[in-house]
Write a structure and sequence with these properties.
- With 400 residues, the chain is an alpha/beta fold.
- The chain has one domain (2-399): Spore Coat Polysaccharide Biosynthesis Protein SpsA, Chain A, CATH 3.90.550.10.
- Helices cover 38% and strands 18% of the residues.
- The chain contains 12 helices and 14 strands.
- It has helices spanning 48-55, 69-78, 98-113, 125-133, 150-163, 179-195, 225-242, 261-264, 275-287, 324-336, 343-356, 379-392, and strands spanning 2-4, 9-12, 15-25, 43-45, 58-64, 84-89, 117-121, 168-171, 201-206, 210-214, 217-221, 257-260, 303-309, 397-399.
- Strands 1, 2, 3, 4, 5, 6, 7, 8, 9, 12, 13 and 14 form a 12-stranded mixed beta sheet that branches. It has a two-stranded antiparallel ribbon with strand order 10-11.
- The model is unreliable at 392-398 (pLDDT under 50).
- The structure holds guanosine-5'-diphosphate and cobalt (II) ion.
- The site of guanosine-5'-diphosphate has 17 residues, from strand 5, strand 6 and helix 5.
């Protein structure tokens, strides 16, 4: 892959946020033969072998809820072979057992591809038990099982990626129409880890475009409304501390992201649409050097956020636009309710919100649920009991 070396970098304490990097060649060749592996000042050429080496230690978590099988299959087709796939499904088990059908389809797919796929249901009793014993019951509902929601599925996927001893974890939604786009994201995750080879690297993808039908022709929109809001507000937060206006953040709610498992197990996950934005906020809270150091947070020399602009258009299943306001609210909520947020920015967020929602007067943004830092989960206990779950729950959980 030929990829631009980032030009800008904003620092806050140990957190380094690099500017958006463009991809110039999806495949720039391998190690062998007369290939251009030169590194000049603006472009880095990463041989495909190096990407595959990273992917050998990478789990890709695919959250699923009631997606069409053809879509899920397309997503699996796009994930490079060396990756460990972890499908976390929250599809209903009755009256029609959708999960069973998904598992069957994936098993069949694996026969053809010989891929490593772990399929697990979000309501798996064995895993819920392991989470409870590990002292992280806040993830569980009244029925003792993992709560509904994509973020909750992501936490489960993170724990399973650790259980399978992966170094990196990436996420791709299961409702993506283009296998080629999925393939590109995972290549870019690997490229990010190759360029920033640290224990605390976070790679986030910004789509180049999102096709929409407008007046009978295709229009390739660049920014969704929700990302405009979260990027702008995160940038205002950074500007407040640095004293310089910045536009560095372009991936405030990047659903497509990857990070080292080590980092993933030491940050907080917010529920619902806030999860991605909260990762930014939480990393700045912990390692940005503004808030007093907390005893429960281990210090880190460097936390690197790398942002890559993908080339494929992003097209996912259309589920209506009605939740855009909720998405904006959720991501602004985590910024607003962070102890980092200065009064001035709080006022700006609530005034902007009052206009958006046509409220009579500005009011605070209600907080969203944020799960405790995953470091509070007793990992050894979880891993031990996960083994037990895998032994006894073969019906619900299968290593296909
Ligand atoms: P959007 O793309 O942000 O509009 O949200 P989607 O509804 O497309 O959800 C994103 C991804 O998460 C899709 O792959 C869904 O199938 C999946 N998903 C949604 N809700 C859940 C859930 O409760 N659990 C799991 N495991 N996945 C979910
Ligand atoms: Co979607």
């Amino acid at each position: 892959m030929k990829i631009e070396i980032p030009r800008d970098c904003e620092r806050m304490g140990a957190v380094q946020i690099y500017g958006l990097q463009k991809v110039y060649e999806l495949d720039s060749g391998g190690n062998s033969g007369k290939l251009d592996t030169s590194h000049n000042d603006v472009i880095r050429s990463i041989p495909s072998e190096a990407l595959y080496e990273r992917q050998k230690n990478m789990a890709i978590v695919v959250p699923v809820k009631n997606e069409r099988l053809k879509l899920i299959e397309g997503v699996l087709v796009g994930i490079p072979h060396p990756c460990q796939i972890i499908v976390v499904s929250n599809s209903p088990r009755g009256p029609v057992d959708r999960f069973h059908i998904e598992k069957e389809a994936i098993t069949n797919f694996c026969k053809f591809t010989n891929k490593k796929v772990l399929v697990v249901h979000q309501k798996d009793a064995g895993i819920a038990k392991a989470i409870e014993l590990a002292g992280y019951s806040e993830l569980l509902g009244d029925d003792g099982l993992v709560r509904n929601g994509k973020a909750e599925g992501m936490i489960m996927g993170t724990l399973l990626a650790r259980w399978l001893n992966n170094k990196y974890i990436g996420f791709v939604d299961s409702d993506n129409y283009f296998p080629g786009a999925v393939h590109e994201y995972v290549q870019e995750y690997a490229a990010g880890f190759e360029m920033f080879d640290t224990d605390s690297t976070f790679v986030r993808i910004s789509w180049n475009s999102k096709p929409k039908v407008m007046e009978n022709s295709l229009f390739f929109a660049k920014w969704g409304r929700s990302s405009v809001h979260s990027n702008k507000t995160l940038n205002l937060l950074l500007s407040h501390f640095s004293g310089y206006e910045t536009e560095i953040v372009k991936t405030g709610n990047a659903g497509e992201h990857a990070l080292t498992v080590d980092l993933a197990l030491n940050i907080e996950y917010a529920a619902g649409y806030a999860v991605e934005t909260h990762h930014y906020v939480n990393m700045i809270e912990m390692w940005g050097g503004v808030l007093p150091p907390s005893e429960s947070v281990a210090s880190r020399d460097k936390v690197t956020i790398c942002q890559i602009e993908s080339r494929n258009p992003h097209l996912h299943e259309s589920k209506g636009e009605e939740h855009v306001e909720d998405m904006i609210d959720a991501s602004l909520s985590v910024i607003y309710n962070s102890p980092l947020c200065p009064e001035l920015l709080k006022r700006e967020i609530s005034e902007d919100r009052a206009m958006r929602l046509k409220l009579d007067q500005p009011e605070g943004v209600p907080p969203v649920k944020v799960y405790s830092n995953l470091s509070t989960l007793k990992l050894d206990t979880f891993l031990e009991h996960c083994e037990v779950a895998f032994g006894s729950e073969t019906e619900a959980l299968s290593l296909v």
